[in-house]
Amino acid sequence: MAFWKQFVLSLIVIIAGFAAWVFFVPGAGDTMRDAGIPDSIVSKIAPKAEETADADAPARAQGQRGEGQGQGNRRNGGGRNNTVLVATQAVVQGVVNDRLNAIGTGDAIRSVAVTPQASGTIREILIKSGDRVKAGQVLAKLDSEEQVIARGQADVAVKSAVEKSNLYHNIKSSVSRMDVFDSEIAEQGARLQLQAAELNLARRNITAPIDGIVGIVPVNIGDNVTTSIPIVTLDDRSEILVDYWVPERFANTVSVGQPVEAMSVARPGQVFSGVVEAVDNRIDAASRTLRLRARIDNSSDELRAGMSFSVSMKFPGDKYPAVDPVSVQWDSQGSFVWQVNDDKSRKVRVSIVQRNPDFVLVKADLKDGDVIVTQGLQRVREGGAVRVSADVAATAEVATQ
């Protein structure tokens, strides 16, 4: 087929399709008006379509009572009828950023890895895993024969120095003052040697630095240990410290002493109360989070160091108008909703803050109780008259329950 014939045939098909759309599609005239075509031209092009829309309105109302009636009643002899049938819903107040949930790791309020203060062979272990010990209690002993001998030698040296010093003081007239002074210095040196020997002997006993509960003992009698080998770990878990991280937007909201609630993964459903123990002094540049530390009471000894916790905190939050998600519309300038005031519709620009399944929080010139259109939105116009349908409103209310 020649090109000009294909072109003519395509043009005829397009014109026929446009004519069918104008004649059979309700609201074709409105669409052309929205596209900027003057009413004088629309009334000439689509008068029959608007008459058909009025004639078909009762039939459409049987299937779609709200929106169909609004479409059928909008035209009267080619002119506009300003009354549109709609369903509405009142604006309520919504809150965002009122609760924080984070995952943290617990640690004992005090935890110490006990290491010996001297090297040697373990001669005796006096504790076992799970024991509760007090500060200063002996946990294990190292071999101490050399230290016992050294202390005995120091003790003998002290006695000798004391006798010599006493003798020189009694015969001051026969000895020089320098000899008396030297005897006193020798006595003091001997006493210091005795203290050092007693300290070395005491360090053969490995003692608990804090009150706590004994962990698993990794050494046995006969093991040769040094000052870098832990003998046991002690945990004071009367309270648990939980470290967790929060987004930086909460940096100016959290404070020391603020209440928190924590729930352990190991004990689901059981909530433990605590307070914020410490707030870090800087934001982590990589994750944009702030480190917090909470202190949780564990007097019942149900929690252990190393447990994971789900931590939650409550805040006053930021309050915004909450609207039905279906009420939010979009145009070239952004999002908006239709507000009904004195049976008139008004376009209110909104900025979406948070979108939820049941409502949308927006930043807009709206307050609690303002009426927003949720159904029949296609026919609503700026400043147009609207009428709220009791049937449609009841249907919307049932759907939201």
TrEMBL record:
Q: Does the keyword Cell cycle apply?
A: no
What Pfam families does the database record attribute to this sequence? Beta-barrel_RND_2, BSH_RND, RND-MFP_C
Occurrences of domain Multidrug resistance protein MdtA-like barrel-sandwich hybrid (ranges): 110-228
Q: Which residues form the CusB-like beta-barrel domain?
A: 245-314
Q: What keywords are annotated for this sequence in UniProt?
A: Membrane, Transmembrane, Transmembrane helix, Transport
Residue ranges, compositional bias (Gly residues): 65-80
Q: Name one GO molecular function term.
A: efflux transmembrane transporter activity
Q: Residue ranges of the Multidrug resistance protein MdtA-like C-terminal permuted SH3 domain?
A: 328-379
Segments spanning the bilayer are 7-24
> Where does the record place it?
Cell envelope
- What SUPFAM superfamilies does the annotation carry? HlyD-like secretion proteins
- Coiled-coil residues are none
Renumbered to this chain, region (Disordered) spans: 49-80
UniProt-listed InterPro entries: Beta-barrel_RND_2, MdtA-like_BSH, MdtA-like_C, RND_pump_MFP
GO cellular component term, pick one: efflux pump complex
Q: NCBIfam families per the record?
A: RND_mfp (TIGR01730)
Q: Which family does it belong to?
A: Belongs to the membrane fusion protein (MFP) (TC 8.A.1) family.
Task: Quote the protein name from its UniProt record.
Answer: RND family efflux transporter MFP subunit
